[in-house]
Amino acid sequence: MSSSLQLSGLASGFDWKTFTDSIISAERYPAQRYQAEQAKNDNRKSQLSSLGSMLTTLQTAASGLSSTSLASGRKVVNESSSATISATVSSSTPVGSYEVQVSHLATASRLTGSVFSPPTVVAGDTLTLLGTAGGTATDITITAGMTVSDIVSAINASGAGITAMANKAGTQLVLTNRVTGSGYDIQVNGTLVTALGLDTHPSSGTDTNFTINGVSFTSADTTLDFTDHGIAGLSLKAGAEMLEAETLMVSADVSGMRGKITAFVSAYNSVADFIDSATAYTTKAGKTTAGPLADNREIQSWLRELRYTAFHAPASGDIGNLSALGLDFSSKDSRLTITDSAQLDTALTDNPTDVASFFNNTTTGLASAFVTKLTAYIGADGTTGQLSTKLEAYTKANESLDAQIVALDAYLAQRRSQLEAGFMAMESAQSKIKQMQTQLTNSFSPKTTSQ
User: Fold this and answer.
1) Could you tell me the CA-to-CA distances from 339 to 252, 254, 326, 330, 345 in Å, in that order?
2) Tens of pLDDT along 214-225?
3) How far apart are the first and last CA of the chain?
4) pLDDT of 20-70, one tens digit each?
5) If residue 188 lies in a helix (H) or strand (E), which one and from where to where?
6) Which of 5, 11, 292, 354 could form an SS bridge with 317, CB 3.0 to 4.6 Å?
7) Which pairs count as long-range contacts for 295-301, CB under 8 Å and 24+ apart, including other chains?
8) Distance between CA atoms of 205 and 222, rounded to whole angstroms?
């Protein structure tokens, strides 16, 4: 077939290529609908992914409130106006009042040596000290010609556990044990003991004497912990001897619990706001627009289920419901709000155990129930559950639409080929007819003669 016949309308005068393009474009219209639906599905997937992140945050917040250690936090306050005792507590410290008085602070063993003049150190002189080295005597490295200052440096650099110092003249040497408490008296031996004036008796170390709620205890140092008094998690640091007792109040650390409640409310409201917005129908200038998830009734049901779970959480002791905590749902939207901050603080201070049980009871607690539902929605790690199934469904729907678009394009390619072949056949026929007409015209035209 002549290539010239592929020029649209060359023989027929009919622009069949433009006509073919119009036909193919019209028949490809379903693909545009498929692509528009794919765009909607992609938007839905993006919305669901954002919702998944918010649900994961809510799941984390709910897990914090469902923890069995929710009410275990402790704080300690010294009620004295001029405190000399500092204290730390742990979750195991019993709540209550502790009256602490320190009558004597632990001291370290000390040995002072005095001589008329600095000794002369010769080869073979020795000095052995026993202080804090686990009951093992330590040999101090002594060399001929050492001064008292050199000996002090050698003692301090050794592992004897003794601190040494001397006067400027080198006639007085003081050894102090680095640990306090009775039973740790300094012991010295060696040829230099007399030369350094250390052949006297050291002062004995003493223990800290203290009472808690009238019960007497002792400690080898000034840090008074469980090994000294037997109170779990309570550690005291004595700063000075006391003329009167100081009162330490150990109570539940409600600030940690309050922070977890606030985080839970915030996370819930983020989910509620998002679902309300994504599933809403809005009307503007007479035109109603559906949110990207407006047709997803299951997502809407999740919010209703979570609200119902929170609203109908069973009572725990003095905490009958959310209102007892100063919490309530807004009448305008789906948000959960702290309506009475002071009431929440009072409930946490007066009934921390009941508040904790209201949230973390393993069978009926509000937060525990939330964790169960959220696990169904997004799985234990936020990547499975019902939300994942929905995302997969939209992915498969788009894959199906891709296949339909490919099939339609393949059909239209064949359809174009058929149309073009038909029109080129028409052009060929038209061209042949014109050639025949020309021949006939030439054959029957009258001949002219010259005059």
Assistant:
1) 23, 18, 5, 9, 12
2) 999 999 999 999
3) 46
4) 888 888 888 898 899 999 999 999 999 999 999 999 999 999 999 999 888
5) strand 187-189
6) 354
7) 296/44, 296/390, 298/386, 298/390, 299/48, 299/51, 299/275, 299/390, 300/275
8) 13
